[in-house]
Amino acid sequence: MLSGRGLVKRYGRQHALAGVDIDIHTGEVLAIVGPSGSGKTSLLHVLAGILRAEEGQISLAGQRIDRLSETRRSELRRTEFGFVFQQGLLVMELTAEENVALPLLLGGSSRPEAISSARDWLGRLGLAGKERRRPGELSGGEAQRVAIARAIAHRPKVIFADEPTGALDTRTGHATVGALIDSAASTGAAVIIVTHDRELAAGLPRTVSIRDGRIEPARDTAVPVA
Ligand code: ADP
Ligand code: MG
Question: Whose CA is nearest to atom 17 of ligand 1?
């Protein structure tokens, strides 16, 4: 459903991606693991169209997306993709429900629709009663659940999560990823999770290891799709 072929990304003479092929199927949950500096974030950003690769092709549902204009790519990111970062990157001045409603409003929903959907998602993520709190009034795990609600409320095809547990303790981190996966399963979104946490990755259906900008083939634990 989302696939990259021959992806090369350079920073000067440094190869962040040295020719990566990857396929993500509809609704699939995938961990990307690898040492610091191995190219995980670059791969996520290239697949999501945040960064442009120097070489290679990316397609979404059979359509090439790597050569779209910046305007079309940002539209695609807004409609088809959701993002969860290490720090939630919530807007500190807005309440939880306003943070979640924001992408819906940008997508053309009316304010009542957007707020109602935001409250629904916050409830599903265990945050009922906390909709009017600002990020500073939430725990790290709660704030990350707000970020998950924000990433999924517009029903994207793919959710990209870059070290989403990086700022959380192990138990909260694992519960947060569980909430992300359950939410995605309910909408059919695929989830790509970059993580340092081998134990977390081991609990996911598929792990891809990356080192020096290359996928380590033996480590791709995908069950072959018939
Ligand atoms: P990871 O997320 O696995 O830690 P990154 O994708 O962030 O790795 O980085 C891969 C390589 O590219 C590293 O060597 C890093 O130093 C380099 N790199 C990443 N971003 C930049 C940048 N903006 N400018 C220069 N080099 C960068
Ligand atoms: Mg990174």
Answer: 16
Ligand 2 midpoint to CA 187 (Å): 27
Each residue of 198-220: b (16+ CB within 10 Å) or e? eebbeebebbbbbeebbbeeeee
Q: Whose C-alpha lies nearest to ligand 1, atom 11?
A: 16
Q: What is the pLDDT confidence band of residue 121, given thresholds at 50, 70 and 90?
A: very high
Radius of gyration of the chain measured on its C-alpha atoms: 17
**C-beta of residue 148 within 8 angstroms of C-beta of residue 177:** no
Q: Which two tokens stand for residue 60?
A: 């979404």
| pTM of the predicted structure, to 2 decimals | 0.92
C-alpha of residue 219 to centroid of ligand 1, in Å: 22
CA angle, 114 as apex, 84 and 94 as ends, to 5°? 60
In this structure, the residue with its CA closest to atom 1 of ligand 1 is 37
pLDDT grade for 155, boundaries at 50, 70 and 90: very high
The secondary structure of 191-202 as a DSSP string is EEEE-S-HHHHH
Q: State the closest ligand 1 atom to the C-alpha of 43, by its place in the atom list counted from 1.
A: 6
pLDDT score of 54 more than 90? yes
Q: What is the tens place of the pLDDT at every residue in 125-145?
A: 999 999 999 999 999 999 999
